[in-house]
Amino acid sequence: MRIEIWADVVCPWAYIGKRRLEAAIADPALSARDIEVVWRPYRIDPTAPPQAAPTEPAQRDPMVDDAAARCVVDPPTTGSSGTADDRVPISRIAATEGLGPNWGPAWRSSSHDAQRLLALAHEHGGSTLQDTVAEHLMRAHFVEGHDISARETLRTIAATAGFAEAAALLDTDAADRTVRELRLVGKARGIKTSPTIVVGARALAGAQPPDVIADFLATAGPERDVPEEVGRLRYAESLLERATRSERSPCSNRCSTITATSSAYVASPPARTSPPPSSAAPGKLWNSWSPTCRTTPTSGSCSVAPFSA
Q: Which residue intervals make up region (Disordered) (predicted)?
């Protein structure tokens, strides 16, 4: 089974989701399955500066709704982002997943080169090396306070992960096109949330609890093989269709409600109008390319994700 994680390495829910996925894979019901985890790029902050800037203290450990922390489907519509009693610092959530003791990014910057490093790790060392690099990247960013846009930091991370040859590759444009194309593939496939777990044609969005992830994986069917050229044409058609619809209605159902308190780490999809499939766990929604976890409060802003790669 190939599990794709579409995520941004500067997204705290991606790191939390990584721990929850690891716990889910350890479930005895999945222990007999041959599982491969592959990281795919997603961008939560298109406006991040190419040169790192210090993170504002209030943004290092934002308060999030308790419903978001527990990844509750359809939190109550209150018109507000919650009371103080309903909100917890994200560091507390991270701590329950064994991430710490320190928590909070010290720098805000583009994650593009970090995503290049992940793509290169997969190309040169497969999914195991890539997952090791992902762990070191997110730990450096969230726990150790390093600037993961800096080439020297990336070289150190690569060397620590056993990928010393990345040092020379990072000074070229290696994997630049790969990352940009994969971002477009993610848009074509309807990925709107970091993290989103994808198996075949089914997606599970958000840092769901381990039992929910395990249920999702246990019911995943075999991946359908499609010729590469057919897949690329389908993605191109999907992108063109999305661009056309966006031009006709710049703030329609493709808009995302972005939470201010979680800094757009997770965007809630439009409300689902059809009932969940009978195979879904009670209270959970998953389907082909239908994000499942509405982790944002109802307040926020309506924005269309930039169409650039």
A: 266-300
